[in-house]
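Researcher: We plan to redesign the surface later, but first we want a full-length starting point. Tokens attached.
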């Protein structure tokens, strides 16, 4: 993934059999996870420590397996407590296959807590 001078995050990737839903295509959950990742990352790249509060996904075309795909995201609004972003996944021919929007809430204190690794004590 990389962030350009306009603050747009872009990632090129290929989905494999482990992402399969319908034969030869990815599961919709894989698309949602990818968009959540790029839409959240664009907010993080802008310096905001956030958690996802809501994501909306619109499926336009199925994502084929074993073909190059591109995901991108940008911030559309920055408020005091929430940041909005939009994202899309494009097929190799640049057709928008999946698009989404996300609401991310500022949660800096959540990330100041020590991380607990492993099981419980």
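Model: Full-length starting sequence:
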């Amino acid at each position: 993934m990389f962030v350009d001078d306009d603050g747009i995050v872009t990632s090129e990737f290929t989905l494999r059999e482990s992402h399969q839903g319908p034969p030869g295509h990815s599961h919709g959950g894989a698309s949602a996870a990818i968009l959540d990742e790029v839409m959240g990352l664009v907010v993080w790249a802008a310096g905001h420590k956030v958690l996802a509060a809501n994501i909306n996904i619109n499926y336009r075309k199925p994502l084929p397996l074993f073909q190059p795909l591109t995901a991108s995201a940008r911030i559309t609004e920055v408020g005091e407590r929430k940041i909005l972003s939009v994202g899309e996944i494009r097929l190799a021919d640049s057709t928008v296959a999946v698009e989404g929007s996300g609401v991310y809430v500022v949660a800096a204190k959540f990330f100041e807590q020590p991380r607990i690794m492993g099981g419980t004590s």
